[in-house]
Structures are given as structure tokens and as C-alpha cells.
Amino acid sequence: MEPLRTISESHPLHRLFRGLAEYAFMNELGIGDPSLVQYVAGLLAQFVPSQALGRIRDAQGRALLEVTRMVAEAEAAGDADRKRECHRHVGDFTLFWTGVYPEALGRLRREHSPDALIDYQEQGRRSYYVASRLSSGSFMSSVYRRLSDEFELCAVGLSCVRREWEKLEAEGSPTGRPIRPVL
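Given the sequence above, the corresponding C-alpha cells read:
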């Protein structure tokens, strides 16, 4: 199994996503919650390396890319940390696709797919709620609860972030370098 690559906090992409998320959430939606905005910006950077989509793996080490299978893995988890991590990832995964690439949901829920009948928003909201309960007493508990309560609004915020980065791409980078780095 190849190691999961991550984007460091000091990487320019983190700054870009934080700035875009702050702008979209504050100016477009009127949400000035720094912890929520920082989490959403981090979620975007987290999924830049595409293998992060398959962060949750089964007992054989295979990446789980269907929400139903991720939820089953969470429910079968023997410890609360694993269960919380699985549910958090389901929330992140569903929020990412719902907010950033909603046009891909039809493909993800294609006929004969285990996810054909699930509602990504409802499952994401539920998974963040479970993660918040499993994080009780921690700072992240309130962030997960807010993501659960405001799932649709956060998805709208992510679509605003996408629109802003597409504007940047269309305008081109002032440095002459491409906006999308090759990782």
C-alpha cells in the first residue's frame, strides 16, 4: 500500500484555499466562523492528492470509494477512534463531492453501484453528527456538529470557492505559473 501523500500547511495551496474559503464563506454566505472555514479549506487541500479519496481501507487494505462501504467499515470498527475517523471521512468525502463537483454525483451513484440509492447530503450530515458525538469534549466536536447542522450551506460555500478558483484560472496567475500545481 502506497503511503498517503499530504499537502503541508505551509504549501501555497493551503493559503490559496484559506483565502478563497474565507472570501466565499464571509462575503457570499455571511459565515465568519474561523474554525469552520479553516476546516473546509483544509478539506480542499486534503483531497488534492487524489489517493486521499480512498483514505478509508478495508481489512485487506483496499481503498473504499463507495460511501455505503465506508459507512459499513465505520459501523464494523472495533474502537471509537476508527469509527470516528471513518465517519469524519464520509462527511468530508460527501461534502467535497456535493460542494465542489456536484456534476459527478450521478457517476458516483450510477446504477448497480452500492451508492445508487443514498443521499450524499443526508449521509454526510449524519456522519459528521456521529463524528461529533465520538469526539465529545474535544474542540473538533463543535466543528463536526456545525458541519452536520450546516452541511448544505457548507456545500454552497464550497461551490463558491470552486467558482472563485475557476475565475483565477481563467484570469491566469499573475506570476505566469499555472494555478493548478502538479503533485
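The chain has one domain: 12-171. Try to locate this feature in the C-alpha cell string yourself.
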